[in-house]
What does this fold into?
Amino acid sequence: MANFEKSGSTKPFTSKEKPELQFLTLTSTTMATKSNYGWLQGRTVRKGGHSSSNSHTRSSTPQVQSTSTTIFGGGIKDPSGRTSEYFSMDDQCPVCKSDRYLNPKLRLLCNRCESCIDRLFTLGPAPCPICNKVLRKLAFSPQTFEDLGVEKEVAVRRRIAKEFNKRLEDFDDLRSYNDYLEEVEDIAFNLINNIDILATEARIAAYKAANAALTSLNLQREEAEALALKEQEDLERREREARAAQLAQQEQQERDERQREERELIDKLETSQKDAHKIVAKSRIAAAKRSSARAASSSANSGLLGMSFGADYAKLLKTRTNKVTNNVPDEPHVPFQDDWYAYDDLYTVRVDGYDDIISEAVRKDREGIMRAGGYKVEEAWNRALLTAVAGLDVVPLSGSDEPKSLGDADVVMDSV
Amino acid sequence: MKRPLYESSTQYKNWRYSPERLSQIRSTMNEAAVGVIRKTFEAYEPGSSSNVSFVNAHEEHLLVTFYVHKISQLCGHFRFPEEVEATATSYLKRFYLKNTVMDWHPKSVMLTALFLATKTTNNPISLDVYASHIPNTVASDVLNLEFLVAQSLAFEFAVWHTHRALWGIWLDIQNLPDSPPDISKTQGSIYDSALIHVRAARLTDAEFIYTPSQIALACISLTAPDLAKKWLESKENMPVPENRTDIPPRPSATTLFASIEAIKSIITNAGKVPDVEAVREVDRRLRTCKNPEKVVGTKAYLARKAEAEKKAEEKKNKKAEIQKATGAADTDPFGDPLSEPVKPGLVDYDDDDD
It folds into this structure.
């Protein structure tokens, strides 16, 4: 992966080369779980912009896509092709003054048009006509952001992120992690605004020497994560497809069966001597049986299917969450108790139900329409039995003393 | 030891009386009402009140009982479930423990109580449909009294009903060790006739004196005394589970016996629909002795309304004066407007270049 940095050769990077590369899927979840500069680290891209798992690649558009075919080095590499190059109608190459009107496929890399760069730098590093700094062809990158300042900043940060990729887990406490981050920001700021470049570069070199091992370890970890994520997405997709296929299959089966049943019915009506109604009734019962059996088996099947994928998926999720969150122990749960005696030992609701007229409609309701809202006959029986034994031992009041709670007996009449 | 759950209900706490207390309440209320109305008559037409014969407490009770019976007819017409009927009945009876018929005629209160009962028992019906099914009634007639009814009930809308206790006893009887397995079919008539007794009990004051389980037991006892006794004894002899120290003592058949007999006599004596003629007589007399302040259109009513409005005006003026005195009228009740200028935002929404 580091080959690009090293290959500062003068050989132009033709589109026919095929370096050994790795994959990065750019989804929003990766941004959340990875380090801040994850997406900036610019993993190199498989050739041709063909990404098998990523269905978001666009077909060729008039805008040039930043795929590796046209990247010379540096610049944002977006394998999904979603970020298109920045361009506007009044771009103009400062050297040859050709603009988009004459040449719609003009690509401005770092202020020069592509053809000019070719011409100027093919023979090796040469000074820039304007600022006289010696540049190499490789250093030119297609512009992704409107503001050149931002472009430069992004380039700097990307470079730094390759070096400084420590995470929270690598530090003992939050304070030291924050200190580290501050140092990184310092370095970045210096480089971007051209402050103390030499000293900053020295710092970078020092850091690199000190932390080489940890850096490479982190790199590996990130790669592993990316891989795991991709696998999990694949899994999800496969599962979804499988489910869809199964559903389609089921539907097809049902349709076939229904057709078959109808045909059988017609045949039977034709051939047999028995009463037409009886035949129809029998076939309907058989159909109901079949459909219920199918429903039962399909639910069992889908349960199994879901389980096999679900188990792995669950495991993957668990590892991910374990990494990110700490387990906060639950406080012991105190159930809500009150002080009332609910006569629960005075009666028992019979387990196999009662046969009574009042609940007949609900009990006879085969399709369960009345039970859809959560109504259970047992609860109605419970309430009835409770009312039957509640207050059996209450002694009626006697005498004509006024009880305490009736203090405001006649207030209502006066107020209205 | 825990307290029984029934004691947490408002029915136990607030709507329980002794028979003596009931008659006392009714007679005192009647006398007080007569006094007030007589005064109102005198205020507008001196000397007229001596000709008016007011209804007494007993006649009031008769009228209320008649309209309670009308409720069950209405419920049959609307096909409301039994719970609605029972709840509306309770509401009507409770209302007239706190008010007199001379102020509010039972007919309008009955309609309002029934409508309220459909709502509180979760069997709601649209007000327009309700009013359209009752002749000579507009929606506002029903709604006018609704708050009054609710207030008289002290907003205590939950009622424990006898018919549910009866159902419970019936289910439990099927659970008795020596009852035949198809008892619900062979002896279903016991349940039906007990239910008739429950409906008769609704016309009486039983629910104010006894608990619904006691009344239900009495109803079964009227139909099948032995069965009732067997059931009660099974409850009395139900073993207390070990290590339960929170259970109060079991109900005793002997102490309950007196109550049950009393309930039975109440049901048989008072559980009848009043004679229509007597009711009509009372109604005729009621028309003359109604409280004029409550009758829309009379001088008294208008005077009362004017008075109420005047009081409201006074209150408003006083409040305005107080506010002016403290200078509160000048300040914005929502607080002063912010003094700092709005900071220019980071995003310039007017820039439409992109």
In short: The longest helix of chain A spans residues 212-271.
